[in-house]
Amino acid sequence: MDLVELVPAHAQGDVKLxxxxxxxxxxxxxxxxxxxxxxxxxxxxxxHEGHLSLLRAARAECDVDVMSLFVNPTQFGPGEDLDRYPxxxxxxxxxxxxxxxxxxxxxxxxxxxxxxxxxxxxxEGGLTxxxxxxxxxxxxxxxxxxxxxxxxxxxxVGPDVAYFGQKDAxxxxxxxxxxxxxxxxxxxxxxxxxxxxxxxxxxxxNAYLEPSGRRRAAALSxxxxxxxxxxxxxxxxxxxxxxxxxxxxxxxxxxxxxxxxAEDLSPVTELGSRPVLIxxxxxxxxxxxxxxxxxxx
Length: 297
Ligand code: AMP
What we know:
Helix content: 25-40%
Number of helices: 8
Structural class: alpha/beta
Order of helices and strands: EEHEHEHEHHEHEHHEEE
Strand order of the largest sheet: 1-2-5-4-3-6-7
Bound molecules: adenosine monophosphate
Distance between the termini: 53 Å
Number of strands: 10
Shape: globular
Strand content: 15-25%
């Protein structure tokens, strides 16, 4: 296998595909020496406009842009969709190049987790054992997988700025905590959720939806929009009830639908002086979808 492959791209010149962390370091060395800023966009691939919005932001702000493309096995639980997670590396490389990425780092799993791998990074406590981290759902192991791979990517790339999407609000809160607690010398930039015309948050997992489920899935964002509208006048409790009614009307039973402090994820019952996150997860057609809305004070 070639360690450095040049992939011809449509619009923006070439993007370099790197499979090994040593090659990645060597490729970034000139930029680092010259003091150029490095942006990192971590992804699991099967790119959509949400990913591309992060890449374009990195392009606009940083001198050199790296997209990682890695379906991270440690963040999938047993029985989750690791094996069937959608993949299309060739298309991803073209889209990443068009959006202005300079490097795509796509290591094989055995390079990230070689035999004998035994070290994990885990954010403990109330950020990781609620919502998706609740033991009845994905569990804290999911976030342990996320923080472990993100810490490794930060060490391999050494970015000045790392870009994440608000769509995965809990992931953002957890990664921010890790960066602060472990003194990673970088800035986290969070970009708004990019949506389909009917409001459905873009997600690689939307590929699992059948046409009828795809139509019903628009109820998730409708429910959050209703909650956002109701909350300021009628309060969070009424907002959550209205959102649940919207989901029920579409035949969708949420795994969770909760109002939480956007930063520490503690439960909140009233709007106050801090941003509130209304977050939900629901299964549609066997696809587990998440979405959220942020209500600023
Ligand atoms: P993923 O490939 O699903 O792990 O996502 C990679 C990055 O893209 C994460 O930071 C996500 O939060 C972000 N992302 C995923 N979907 C969206 C979206 N619809 N809008 C904005 N960012 C997104």
